[in-house]
Specification:
356 residues; alpha+beta; Aminopeptidase; 2 domains; 12-stranded mixed beta sheet; 11 helices; 12 strands; globular
Length: 356
């Protein structure tokens, strides 16, 4: 499986850090015992031209259970598993329609009520799934923007990253840097070996959990399986430079740490931990990202992607965005119609009960 998946990852125009051999192997190691998993390989003329995982689970919706199949990863509550973005079928260019048809034929032979694709890039694969594979099955599509910094364009301008920020954001960054520099020089440190990467990751998790638990939220690493997944991913992928951990410090004090994925010339920001001081003029998130983006700019990367979401800081840091789609194909059934009716009734009751 691993050599084939690796070969397709390198040859498919739809590959991403989330579809890498390391990501899939770590997911199988930590989650495959919870759900039935199929590995599909699509062939033509005896040669593999595509591959994917199908993950089946029963999910509770109020008093009901719904049989759902996910493409490549998924299953269970989102808080307990890593979320998939830049998802797709791994396939060679030109085989999108054939593979979409073959996947559709396979799925039509299976028992399920929903087929879910998390974070897929709109394009040929999704189009053929909609028009050829499941033309008779309605799809619910939610699109979210993935904000990114176009490092190539910034590099061609010859300007530093901060010059692309809005005047307000640039002033916040400069003020924060001046204040942090009272503690010592502000610098970005890359983890250069696995022990240092694991040290940075552990420190980041402590800061992240402290911040979010202080806000009454469990934090991204509350799940033991999810935490083990990321530790396995770092162990397996760091040597191939597919993981980037960046710590930004002022003197000897940590400002923040970023946990990023890397594939070829693109960096995906995944998670972070920041030290929030009492002085609200200090912006540890802004400073940490700005230093990391400048580092990636100088290292020659093409994109610094902040992933999907409408958080204000993403819009402040990045000028450009690309869409990602969360798609659910739902086979018509009385159960799903009843679930939708109950959801609509609940929403209506909630609106009527809101203070006017």
């Amino acid at each position: 499986m691993a050599p084939l998946w690796t070969e397709l990852t390198h040859s498919s125009p739809y590959s991403s850090a989330y579809l890498s051999t390391h990501w899939i192997a770590a997911w199988l190691e930590m989650f495959a015992d919870l759900f039935p998993v199929e590995i599909l390989v699509f062939e033509e003329g005896g040669a593999a031209v595509g591959a994917c995982l199908l993950v089946a689970c029963n999910e509770r919706r109020g008093p009901f259970r719904v049989r759902r199949i996910y493409l490549n990863a998924g299953g269970g509550p989102p808080a307990g598993r890593p979320m998939m973005e830049f998802n797709n079928l791994l396939c060679r260019a030109g085989f999108e329609q054939k593979i979409a048809r073959a996947l559709g034929a396979h799925l039509r032979s299976r028992k399920w009520e929903e087929f879910a694709i998390e974070g897929i890039c709109p394009g040929p694969v999704l189009s053929w799934l909609q028009t050829d594979s499941f033309s008779e099955i309605p799809a619910s599509i939610t699109t979210r923007a993935s904000y990114y910094v176009d490092l190539n364009r910034l590099r061609q301008s010859g300007l530093p990253y901060e010059s692309w920020l809005s005047p307000n954001t640039r002033e916040q960054l400069r003020r924060s840097l001046r204040l942090y520099e009272k503690l010592g020089a502000v610098r970005a440190e890359l983890a250069r070996d696995l022990p240092t990467a694991e040290e940075f990751f552990a420190e980041m998790c402590r800061m992240h959990q402290y911040t979010w638990q202080g806000r009454g939220q469990p934090g991204a690493f509350a799940s033991a399986r999810k935490l083990a997944f990321h530790r396995a991913l770092i162990r397996n992928a760091f040597a191939e430079q597919a993981i980037q951990l960046v710590r930004v410090v002022a003197g000897e004090e940590t400002i923040g740490i970023l946990y990023n994925f890397v594939q070829t010339d693109k960096v995906y920001f995944y998670q972070s931990g920041f030290h929030y001081p009492p002085d609200k003029r200090l912006k540890p998130g802004l400073v940490t990202h700005a230093c990391a983006i400048q580092l990636c700019l100088e290292a020659g990367y093409k994109d610094y992607d902040l992933l999907a979401g409408e958080a204000r800081y993403k819009k402040s840091l990045a000028k450009d965005s690309r869409p990602l789609a969360w798609v659910v194909f739902s086979r018509p059934s009385v159960k799903l119609a009843l679930i939708e009716l109950l959801r609509t009734l609940k929403a209506g009751i909630t609106r009527r009960c809101e203070p006017r």
